[in-house]
Amino acid sequence: MKKKARAEKNYKFTGKKHSGPGAAALVFSFAPLVMFFYAVAVSYRKGGQAQETIGCIGIAAMLAALMTLRVSVREARKENVLKRVPVTGAVLSVLMLAGWTAVYVIGWIGL
Predict the structure, then answer these.
(1) N or C: which end of the chain has fewer CB within 10 A?
(2) Residue 16, SS3?
(3) Cα(91)–Cα(7) distance, rounded to whole angstroms?
């Protein structure tokens, strides 16, 4: 009876640990979002006439998102690492890449 009660709790003890670079990638995956808010503030201050500045900020944000995506994917593929943190960083990086790509496409189309 005691053996069955323990099995029902479904405890799983593992030697997996959080990945340091994966956690750093998660933290840095917020950098493109911060850069977006900065770009909006710059655009507001200049009355919508900051194309070059916003373009540079956007390229830097896309490069940051690509780097964090690369690190997140690399860390998620490692063994004996908890996958939740690097996968979350990868998802946030993909969302930031999609957002900045949308900003550039909207800028090219002229909406």
Answers:
(1) N
(2) coil
(3) 34
Cα–Cα distance for residue pair 75/31, rounded to 1 Å? 19
Amino acid (1-letter code) at residue 106:
I
Q: Give rounded-to-5 percent helix, strand, coil for the chain.
A: 75, 0, 25
Question: What DSSP state is assigned to residue 80?
Answer: S
For the record, the structure tokens of 104 come out as 């550039």
Helix axes 31-45, 84-109, angle to 10 degrees: 30
Q: What's this model's pTM, rounded to 2 decimal places?
A: 0.73
SS3 call for 29: coil
Specify the pLDDT at position 52. Answer: 86
Q: What is the dihedral of CA 25, 17, 76, 92, to 10 degrees?
A: -40
58 exposure class (CB count in 10 Å sphere: 0-12, 13-18, 19+): buried
Q: How many CA atoms lie within 13 A of 18 on its CB side?
A: 10
Say which range, 14-28, 30-44, 54-68, 71-85, has the weakest mean pLDDT.
14-28
